[in-house]
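Re: export button greyed out
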Amino acid sequence: MTSSGKLDGKISQPDSGSKTLPESYGSTEAALLPRDPNWMFIYWEITGNSKAEVSRTHGHDVFEKSRQVIRVYDATGGQAGRYFDIPVMIDARNWYINVQESGRTYYCEVGLVLPDGRFICLVKTNTVNLPPGRVSDVTDEKWMTVSADFDKLLQLSGVEYIGKGSGEVAKSLAQRWEMLRSVFSRAASWGVSSLSSHALHKGGAGKNFWLVADCELILYGATEPDAAVTVSGRKVALNPDGTFSMRFALPDGNMDLPIKAVSCDGTDSREIEIKVTRTTRNDGK
Amino acid sequence: MENKEKGYLALVLHAHLPFIRHPEYDDFLEEDWYFEAMCETYIPLLDIYERLTGESADFRVPMSLTPPLCNMMSDELLRERFRRYYNQRLELAEKEVHRNRNTPFHDVSEMYLRKFRRIRELYEDYYHGNILEGFKKFQDMGKLEIITCGATHGFLPLEIRKEAVYAQVKIAADDYKLRFGRGPRGIWLAECAYNPGDEVYLKANGIRYFFLETHGIIYGSPRPRYGVYAPVYCPSGVAAFSRDMESAHQVWSAEMGYPGDTRYREFYRDLGYDLDYDYVKPYLHQDGVRRNVGMKYYKITGKVGLNAKAPYNPAEAREVAASHAGNFMFNRERQIEHLNGFLGRKPIVVSMYDAELYGHWWYEGPDFLEFLFKKLHYDQKTVKMITPSEYLERHPDNQVLQPSMSSWGDKGYNEVWLNASNDWMYRHLHKAVERMVDMANRFPNADGILKRALNQCGRELMLGMSSDWAFLMTVGTAKTYSTKRFIDHSNRFIGLYEQIMGNRIEEKYLADLEWRDNIFSHIDYKVFSTGAQERAAKAG
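Workaround output, generated via the alternate export path:
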């Protein structure tokens, strides 16, 4: 529809409330959200008190000498099984998490891995069920009849339906859906290219043992909410609390990321330059 | 009577706009979204339904009218402002007919005059300033099946607390009853976003069915025998209808879709920019900046610059719409014949569209629909238009499966509403939900000013939950406005919350918010209590 911001400046502000949201809510907590079959989003807040308590128990330098991680648990079937760690800075406050296996149940803990390998959990999230992202392997059919007011839910026997190419319809439609989706996207205009989550493909079919790996780069920071920030000369949109983050594909090679913030009156500026090098070696097997 | 049809077509229109109403300004830019949709989509749809009914041409349309839209349609202030809006256009159209005599733009200016006069007639004489009357009339006749939507089009898979999911559904169902005199039978989950298990809250509100994007069923488990061409029951008995991608593609696709035909009206060349400034100024906003006024005189023409477009020919465009309707019908007939043989059951093809596509984006879309409905009625017997309720009555036996999490957004899941441009919202939104639930649990029987404050907290929370804010941040249009709206509602919630918890509610502050954010006049904050949600989960 008509696009716009607000009416140009000259309107007075018969408005209530401030322009920014609280930076924190003063409680240690974390939440995990599903994004798609292979990605989740986690945010957390860990208060000064919580940190102080950990320091009291484990030593004042515990945060410096430990690895700060998100521990991602596969809790499919109701019990925590395998996990893996993602190194993070606890001050990052949020993260996108890539998981290899879709269709499973996950939860996370943000915490510290001590030099001796012990794990201290600072905060734990809710659990999330990720969608499978593919046609189901289950082909048993159940049928039901339901009356208009839900009074009757009558389970029907599946017998009379069995034996007519069960499941093939779903498979062929799925192929067609994938094809259409890839050539035509309903919201083609929005392309935050840095957010492309290139899916990982399993290694050659037929081999039992396989390994795939990739990595991305996340750059984040914070400044005054009204400052102007550029990364590699490109303007970056700040969140209302002055934080910003960008996610890049990280190909092999060198990457320079000069970051510059200019205060809103233009009188002050700060610069940080980050250089990243990636080298990937694959044994080719 | 013998059923000759080989299958069914459910053409679903999803009508929605976020709640945009700014009494604090005399004139507010984003309110135009609603006025434009009124003139180009909602009233033209009613116009079609009136004409088809007058000609006794039968039709069926399942159509959502979301609670924010229903609240805007019945709001006194917006009703008055819409009058001002169409009267201005009517005045301009009258002037234009004179100005364009003996020019290539005569026909198109006549068209606008005719259309705005018809809008006035329908709005004032038929529906007395409340077009919900019109929609209700066609629902009561059995032509429309109006379905509801989450109370503020909340994106349910990104809610953590089920109390919030329950509240979105319950407040919507109550609002629907108020307007249509009975409960809703179906619901459009905002953005077709489905989270497995949430349907128990639909069932607890008597809602029998909802809609899914294609892969919601295709990736369900066990495998769906009929793909998307029959509904399925979730284990709870709530039915899910899933989107046919072929018919969607035909209309939506940028390259192959009908709306791109060169003889259709060009959206981006508008009189607001073309006319002499002094002449058009009275029809612009008070700031005097040139913007779209909604009247456009050119056709798409081809891949040429905006200054090289040819004059629009309304009669020619209508003929194209008729031929596209014929093509669409032909394709559905062939599709349904094929599926009928292939599946061994009468298929239902569910075509789902944003209602605003028809008229606002695709100007001739309402003509297309009118031709399509007429042709389906008069010219063939293969395809029968149907509503989901009618379908379930005829075919109550369906496969049981657990649909997959899915949405109709780009890439099929939650990314449009959860990415680097908007992920910062969720910690604030979830915190507000948690606080709302705590307050509803803590004050089971509030009255007086406390009750008012709690109810207003519920309104602010609901308004903050609109999926529209996150969507607009992603696509980058109206990003400033959507960010401001989310922050405003969040801060208003926080302000009231602190006053309530500190036992120092300021009546003046509260009254000001009640005046600004007046959606859901009958809201009851107790809907957010854990007990209410748990009872619903048990009933479902």
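The longest strand of chain B covers residues 7-15. The button fix ships in the next patch.
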